């Protein structure tokens, strides 16, 4: 892998601490025994690890890429024509994401903590530090797999993914490894973290419920429905916490954390990132969108769905009405597009469990979970009854698409379900469905482009790291 420079001094800078507080030489240039000598060192390293997540998730295209790759968004002709290589599926090793490089940089920070934590005496501090590093590492590897590998269920023994690096050594040249083995390692890290991690670690840090919730997502991807249910039960407890209707929009203004299991902080004390700009900017007082809501998806958001006003607004730009994504407009009175990035919410975990219940033969429990979510989303809510299993599954998946719209999930969801991408070529980028339509309409579920390419720089640096087939 590319050599990622990791320094305690860098951590200090990322967390707002002065270098003089530790006065340590770069991590790669000193003895390991001197790198972590106190709990303060470990705390700074943990803070630096979380700071690195901003580069992977907040200062990136994470919140839009999975929607632009799929069928939730359509390119606006009035925008800057960004990400067209991805929305038109014309990507290659030279136009691929920076996510993998950013992710490995944070993984190296997590590995440094794990390599040094045994210097400290047994206790809750040591356990929690180990668990947080394991969880962050697993989180990033899972998302690397979602972007770049076949799914666990569809992968053969010869299908591979990026290496699962667990060392800070900079002279190793690891090879890719089998997808199923990679997923098993993600699960092992999370299972090891779960009993050790604290119930509460404060905002912007992973806690026990977040680990359990991520396990529910992972096991759903792996097709292990029994473990999906167990993990979801643990994450949600006996009374799942969903935002009240009035709080749904407030979650996306950072006014409440109700229903948020883990988010990446993006505060005024940090190097501010503006994830909302991926969707639109303000020009002469009007919203100028990069991508707008696909017409059929917009029609699926009803007037009585509280998510509609929280996620979407319709307004003109240059005299043309468009359906704009405002989920990332930002905090009230704050900088446009600046807010925390929500990576896991209880609503998703509830839907994970509902789907797993149905696949396990418990349609009654699946319907109860579905109706619980719907009761907190529709002002005219009436419980659904009498659904066939096929109808129930379709509604669970429909609610998942609505709930997680514009959070980067859609591409991964179609891939997980082994479904193709089929865009409506009759609808354009205007609010009424007219306007410029998609140029590229269909991607078969077997298309190699469902596995995004690795950066050419990584391939060129490490000859053992082979590019994905087709590129």
TrEMBL record:
Record key words, sorted: Cell outer membrane, Membrane, Signal
One Pfam family recorded for the sequence: SusD_RagB
Residue ranges crossing the lipid bilayer per the database entry: none
Record localization: Cell outer membrane
Stretches assigned to the RagB/SusD domain: 215-471
Family: Belongs to the SusD family.
Keyword Transmembrane helix: no
Native organism: Sediminibacterium goheungense
GO cellular component: cell outer membrane
Predominant place of localization: membrane
Entry keyword annotation includes Signal: yes
Name of this protein: Putative outer membrane starch-binding protein
Protein origin, superkingdom: Bacteria
């Amino acid at each position: 892998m590319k050599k990622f420079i990791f320094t305690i001094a860098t951590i200090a800078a990322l967390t707002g601490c002065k270098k003089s507080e530790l006065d340590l030489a770069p991590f790669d240039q000193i003895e390991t025994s001197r790198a972590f000598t106190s709990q303060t060192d470990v705390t700074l390293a943990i803070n630096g690890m979380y700071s690195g997540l901003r580069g992977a998730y907040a200062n990136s295209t994470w919140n839009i890429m999975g929607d632009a790759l799929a069928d939730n968004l359509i390119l606006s002709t009035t925008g800057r024509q960004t990400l067209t290589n991805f929305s038109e599926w014309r990507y290659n090793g030279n136009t691929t994401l920076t996510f993998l490089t950013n992710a490995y940089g944070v993984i190296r920070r997590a590995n440094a903590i794990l390599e040094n934590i045994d210097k400290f005496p047994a206790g809750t501090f040591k356990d929690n530090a180990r668990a947080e590093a394991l969880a962050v590492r697993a989180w990033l590897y899972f998302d690397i797999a979602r972007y770049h590998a076949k799914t666990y269920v569809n992968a053969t023994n010869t299908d591979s993914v990026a290496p699962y690096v667990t060392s800070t050594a900079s002279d190793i040249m690891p090879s890719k490894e089998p997808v199923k083995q990679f997923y098993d390692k993600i699960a092992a890290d999370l299972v090891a973290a779960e009993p050790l991690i604290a119930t509460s670690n404060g905002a912007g840090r992973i806690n026990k419920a977040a680990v359990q919730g991520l396990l529910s997502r992972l096991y759903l991807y792996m097709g292990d429905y029994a473990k999906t249910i167990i993990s979801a039960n643990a994450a949600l407890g006996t009374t799942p916490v969903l935002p009240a209707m009035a709080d749904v929009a407030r979650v996306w203004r950072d006014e409440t954390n109700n229903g948020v299991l883990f988010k990446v902080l993006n505060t005024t004390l940090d190097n501010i990132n503006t994830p909302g700009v991926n969707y639109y900017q303000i020009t002469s007082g009007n919203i100028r969108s990069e991508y707008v809501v696909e017409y059929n998806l917009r029609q699926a958001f009803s007037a009585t769905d509280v998510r509609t006003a929280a996620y979407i607004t319709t307004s003109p730009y240059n005299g043309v009405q468009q359906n704009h994504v405002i989920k990332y407009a930002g905090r009230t009175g704050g900088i446009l597009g600046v807010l925390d990035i929500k990576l896991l919410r209880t609503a998703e975990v509830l839907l994970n469990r509902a789907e797993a219940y149905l696949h396990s033969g418990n349609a009654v429990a699946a319907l109860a979970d579905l109706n619980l979510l719907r009761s907190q989303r529709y002002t005219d809510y009436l419980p659904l009854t009498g659904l066939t299993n096929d109808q129930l599954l379709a509604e669970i998946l429909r609610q998942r698409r609505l709930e997680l719209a514009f959070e980067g999930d859609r591409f991964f969801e179609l891939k997980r379900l082994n479904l193709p991408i089929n865009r409506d070529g009759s609808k354009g980028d205007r609010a009424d469905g007219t306007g410029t339509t998609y140029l590229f309409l269909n991607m078969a579920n077997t298309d190699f482009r469902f596995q995004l390419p690795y950066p050419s720089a990584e391939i060129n640096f490490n000859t053992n790291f082979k590019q994905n087939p087709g590129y």
